[in-house]
Amino acid sequence: MRIIKLIFILIILSLSFGCNNYENLNDFNYIKIETPKFEQDTFHGVVKSSNNVNLSFQTEGKIIYFPFADGDYIKKGQVVAKLDGTLYEIRKKEESNRLREYIIQQNKQKSYYHRLDLLHKEGAISDNDWENAYYELKVLAQQIQTQKEKIDYINKELEYTSVIAPYNGYIAKKYQGEGSIAKIATPIAFFIASEGFLVDIMVDESTINKLHLNDLSQIKVLNRIYQGNIAHIAKTNLDFSGYIVKVRIKNTTNFLKEGMSADVTFNFKNNSKLTIPINYIFEENDEKYIYKVTDINGNIGTIEKIKIKTGQIKDDNIEILDGVKNGDIIISNYNYKNLSHKKIKL
Question: Positive or negative, the Cα torsion across 167, 173, 176, 178?
Fold first, then answer.
């Protein structure tokens, strides 16, 4: 029994001794290598409509219908404004009545011509009478065609008395109202599409090579998040070394308005080299080394001296070309001359 107790005590002492040999990571200066795969750049811009137009009439007249105000939303194909088309309606009615009369005369003339044609084939009437009947039929056909063209023209004039919304959008600025006299091609309102918006941003030469047409981005407008993609990239002018980038944004909720501020964020692939602070590196025999935690099992690891290859120095950091990767834990050895093979608690 005493032997068993002695063995048990020795085991406890052995475990305690082993635990006391572990170093604690928090007692060291250390870093965990975490180089992000992507880096972000955010640019401030302004929302602009890719489609806007001055609405105007294609004929002159008095505006009798224009119920919309600045900011009102209008659907594609909806009538925005109308002119007084009374005179056109009267002319259309007159010409339509005249067309019906010509058609009635044509039907009578056709019957008359068919009778004469049969008699002419039997030699019962002269060629002259047959030709006169045929001529009258052709004249009526021509009159009917001319009358249809007149009515088509009046219908077109009636169409010109209405202004139709070319796409879903809103009135940005109303120039004339009901009772005003509209003139041909004189704007009555400035109309902006509610879809097909762009965000214009400026970027410098260091960024432009990272951007490509159709690259995706995240756009923030008044705490609302939208998705966008690059639609256009162009140099500004010879006096400024920047670029204009237009990012397309979908306005599915009709919330966006031209002139709103927006922040456009791009995720770029991080091509920068992995770096660590210079004071984590030491030299022996013209070779560079670090202390890295290896063989991690649970919360226990082993400190190993690892040979590395380095690149350029930037500020207080140095590029690591070989020997270190993302996720590695590097320990500074400023208080110790040799940490190799020491066990460490993480």
Answer: positive
